From TrEMBL:
Domain PDZ: 137-218
Protein's recorded name: MAGUK p55 scaffold protein 3
All residue ranges annotated as the L27 domain in the record: 6-60, 61-118
Disordered, as annotated region: 299-345
Domain of life, source organism: Eukaryota
Positions with biased composition (Low complexity): 307-319
Similarity annotation: Belongs to the MAGUK family.
Keywords: SH3 domain
Pfam family, one: L27
Domain SH3: 226-296
Domain Guanylate kinase-like: 363-538
InterPro entries named in the record: GK/Ca_channel_bsu (IPR008145), Guanylate_kin-like_dom (IPR008144), Guanylate_kinase_CS (IPR020590), L27_C (IPR014775), L27_dom (IPR004172), L27_dom_sf (IPR036892), MAGUK (IPR050716), P-loop_NTPase (IPR027417)
Amino acid sequence: MPVLSASTGLHEMLALLTSQLHPDANHKEDLVFLREVFSERSLSYLMRIHERLRQYEHQSPTPVLHSAACLAEDVAEELQTGLLEGDEKELLMLLTTPHVKAVLTVHDTVAQKNFDPVLPPLPDDLEDELEEESVKIVRLVKNKEPLGATIRRDEVTGAVVVARIMRGGAADRSGLVHVGDELREVNGNLIIHKRPDEISQILSQSQGSITLKIIPAIKEEDKLKENTVYLRALFDYTPFEDKATPCQEAGLPFQKGDILQVVSQDDATWWQAKRVGDSNLRAGLIPSRHFQERRLAHRMKMGTYQSPKSPRSPPSGLRRSFRMSRKDRQSSPGESRSAEHGEPEFLTYKEVTRYQQKPSEKPRLVVLIGSLGARINELKQKVIAESPHRYGVAVPHTTRPRKSHEKEGVEYHFISKQAFEADIQSNKFIEYGEYKENQYGTSLESIRSVLSRNKMCLVDVQPEALKVLRTAEFKPYVIFVKPYLPEGRRHRSRAASPEGEMRHSAEQMEQQYSHLVDWILVKEDSASACVELRHILERLEREPQWVPVSWVRP
């Protein structure tokens, strides 16, 4: 009989067994039958398939992402926005082919399913403990993902209790473990004398079936469910750099501008949230608004933090409306009023909601702000000239005399200096200034006049004017335009180089006002910038956008 090793495949073993079948007189028919069965080519193929499946199973493959179909649609949409070369055309054709789309949809369906093994029956020796009403035996299946629960030591009783349940994690999906439950045993091992970090390590290292002995917490009656809250992050957060987080692995990293869905605020210090659009179903920990503001206040006190919204001199080299010098520019009374009663000092989160313009509503105001070299007035005028029936510009006011070719209300609204001063005192201008002894200003009524004709109004203003325009009436969509500056030229002196000045202007402006910006448009050339701006405006008309919740709810 040949020797078989552990590495011998099933199809090889089958061939060896077949070679050892020697029919004798008594069992000739049976052995002939077995030989015919074992020699069947289809059986050999099945054995080979079985081996490959077992090999694949041992590798424990996991999908890279759960949204391949959505990603393919996004790529196809990006490709359709520009001029396509040969390879790009071929890629677009492949991504829009029904068969490829169907394959990606099937991939996502399989990737999102849970193929965890069926739980085995509980051991017989646990039956006596189950008779106690206060003890609950919970068996969970855990793969490589975290269990989705943190624990702490009760300061009064010394018991190990569940501190929080991460939404979407294994513990949460089971519905069997709750905050406040007392943990007695893990896989039959008493943990009462172990430290919480030792217990967390046991749980994180465990794979497959985990058996927990729990004393359930006393549930609050009539506890109201929290409403889901959506926040726009106004700062970057990396859990592995945060020493205060209770569990770095459970933290949720995010970047400024990300939309976060807060699913639990039970903990006053650490909220649970998910990133909108993220395929990961498990929530992560983020610092609460109150906790983050306290930390920033402490850093400011220690001199290690300066709020981007703190008063400072205007960024050097900013585009100046009406070609005014800084010494000629005057501040609108509305600006100082907004500064006194404006947003919180620290930039943490802004509560937002989805907003889709209804047919009966006026269009949103589009505000363009730009750094030195952006030439946003030229960009605005080109887009309006291409579609004057869809877009309009707020006609400014001036005290200079009307020229022979000019018409009232077309190029300007021509008013007297006395009327202009009266409008200033009535806070009718979003910004104004003086140029060559004549006054110029953009009024709120000029904006309302464009919107009332169901046209999208485009204005280019100094960033300070956003304090007046960010209201539920206008719901402004803010686009920051900055010139394209190659990174390779950074070594040139900022003071001596025009590019250095433009870069410094863009960086300073972005640092101070990025929390108010909805889109950053990098202007490489006038033609491509116009195309991108048109696409932005078209999406704004047809797609819902995230806006401050105060703009929608009373």
